[in-house]
Amino acid sequence: MSYLTIGCRSGPLARVVAMLTRMSSPRTPLTRLLTVLLAGLLAGLVLAVAALPGNLLAGLATRAVLGAFDDLPAALRTPATPQRSYLYANDGKTLLTTFYDVNRTDVPLAEIAPTLRQAIVAAEDRRFYSHGGADLRGMARALVANVTGGGTAQGGSTLTMQYVRNVLKSDPSRTAEERQAATDQTVGRKLQEIRYATELEKTLSKDEILNRYLNIAYFGSGAYGVAAASQRYFGKSPADLTLAESALLAGLVQSPDAYSPIDGDREAALQRRGYVLDSMVATGAITAAQADEARAEKLTLHPTAQPNGCTAAVTADAGFFCDYLRRWWLEQPAFGATEQEREQALRRGGYRVVTSLDPDVQATAAAEARKVYPADDARALPIAAVEPGTGRVLALAVNREYGVGDGQTVNPLVSGGGSITGYQAGSTFKLFTMLAALENGRTLSTGFDSPSRLTTRFPAEGEASCGGRWCPANANPARMDGYRMMWDGFGRSVNTYFVWLEEQVGPAKVVEMAQRLGITFRAGTDADLAAHDADNWGAFTLGVSATTPLDLANAYATVAAEGTYCAPTPVVSVTGPDGSTVPVGTPSCKQVLTPDVARAATDAARCPVGQQSAYGQCNGSTAGGVDRIVGRPVAGKTGSSEKNATETFVGFTPQVAVAGIAANPDDPSDAVGAAVQGEVITAVARTIRTAVDGQPVRDFTAPSRELAGNPQRPTPRPSPRTPEPEDQNFPSDLLRWLQNRRG
């Protein structure tokens, strides 16, 4: 005969002992002895508990059974329960997406419907407001019900005990083993739970405990806490729940997966709702008539799934921006010492992130990109928009769809990173040569009689070699050859002028200028040349280095901000779950150019877009239509890489800089062709127009006479007028021929 059945060979007490024996694991002599002792204690309680006053019973339990306990775990004092983080657009209202491992958000008790508070107490712990954390009378009642059979199994745990268990099993500061131990079916764990609950009741008020419980309890279908549950099942806040809805949610916590009307048994959920309503009548929270009315109410669900991560962004085309923000987040020490800690902070920290994304600019950029190439095209038009003076990224758009499905991609096509090193941006890099020259004593009036082909000092082989020296050519000699200054050299995109100018300054200074303005060399060969052989990188001025639309837009934004470089940032503000502001997102800016040098470069950049410089020296353009589209002071530059493999345009006003590069991200040998340049220009110009819509018209400040120099030109050589592509009175076949020859 087993010693576990001494004095109780049959009947309820034998089943009590058997139940406790199963709870004690592993079965060591010590735990078996503890089981016997506890069984005897609880068996006695079954017979005598009803005669003892509740407060006396709780005191006896604490002193005689549990002993003294004065130290609560930190997680119970200040819970570190996981919450989802919200990402909003720059208006602070447009939700982009959420990040979470656990779908939950804390809400104060005042924002939870009173009917839900009453329902949860009635369903789970009717004596909640009278016991001291461990209701031994209730435990004894549950014990009798369970061992005698019949009815629904009862757990006997108070709301406070359930709260303790939920916190300990989800505490991110504990190990996986410690979290698992919080739900082990052992006597030792139950005793610890009672100890913690009793001590917690001395520390927190009943309403504080109830509020914490409602914010952490699992309600099924992936929803933790009443805020997530109310949204998940009914698409509303917990403050707006009806009595019937409150009773349904309260009924779910006993068996969330089984009772969930979305993922489980709808009829079982309704039956459980009826039980909760009856319990509310028993506690006096509602009348029988109110219960009958709620019971008759039809169950109407409005399931609302919370987006999770960048692939689930709710705002159209925001996935690439979201991905950029996540990559930025993982680099910020404010969110943790390691990348893993920062990832966990994003998914479990409960942050409210107001991003820099402008919904209107983003929508325009995405729509314009898809006018050029459809979403399933191998070619792409990534477009980036940046705010000068802050570095805030207003848009990152591309014609592709962000995701992991067929025809989708998660590669950072706009911002670069991972396998994306960027794309050649052609003549847009002439800006860096012009800036380096202006900074090193040249003026905008610096003149040179630009030949069709220029033999340089740089060694070369192949087609671009003249006697072993690199000899680049102008793409359109009729429009480009002849005496040029910086204004029309930039406006007409004269290759030989800027290669000559680069030789005068030294390529190393041009490379350094590009880096100063934020150009990152992601390709290994580019980084190696920049680090070890920059002074022989003669082709750099023609944009042979890979870059991204974001880097390019931010570099031009530096010029628009009169020489103030700001590190690009995707956020305006980040608020922690406690309402405190996290010190990230503040513009990080520094002066990298004198304002006058930046103004001089801007003055020349008025020429390519069909506007006039402050000194009246613009006499040719490659993107004259931009002036008509934007309709206010604007500057910019086109760029075509060799054999028109890529086509680029970057434009700016004092309030925004936008860059777009047409390319095949997966196959650089697949040339996009010159014909698409006009479409790229239009897409970028329309994005600029949206960005400045409603903002005051601001003009650029003219450079000093000192940097302008003395714009005296020699008598020009006679040359036939070559119409620009924007001239609509020429036959389309002639226009196409001209576009194909344009540099």
TrEMBL record:
Entry-linked Gene3D superfamilies: Biosynthetic peptidoglycan transglycosylase-like (1.10.3810.10), DD-peptidase/beta-lactamase superfamily (3.40.710.10)
SUPFAM superfamilies: beta-lactamase/transpeptidase-like (SSF56601), Lysozyme-like (SSF53955)
Biased composition (Pro residues): 713-722
UniProt region (Disordered), positions on chain: 697-743
Reactions the enzyme catalyzes: [GlcNAc-(1->4)-Mur2Ac(oyl-L-Ala-gamma-D-Glu-L-Lys-D-Ala-D-Ala)](n)-di-trans,octa-cis-undecaprenyl diphosphate + beta-D-GlcNAc-(1->4)-Mur2Ac(oyl-L-Ala-gamma-D-Glu-L-Lys-D-Ala-D-Ala)-di-trans,octa-cis-undecaprenyl diphosphate = [GlcNAc-(1->4)-Mur2Ac(oyl-L-Ala-gamma-D-Glu-L-Lys-D-Ala-D-Ala)](n+1)-di-trans,octa-cis-undecaprenyl diphosphate + di-trans,octa-cis-undecaprenyl diphosphate + H(+); Preferential cleavage: (Ac)2-L-Lys-D-Ala-|-D-Ala. Also transpeptidation of peptidyl-alanyl moieties that are N-acyl substituents of D-alanine
Residue ranges annotated for the Glycosyl transferase family domain, each copy included: 95-280
Pfam families in UniProt: Transgly, Transpeptidase
UniProt keyword list: Carboxypeptidase, Glycosyltransferase, Hydrolase, Multifunctional enzyme, Protease, Transferase
Domain annotation Penicillin-binding protein transpeptidase: ranges: 384-679
Protein name: Penicillin-binding protein
Protein's organism: Micromonospora humidisoli
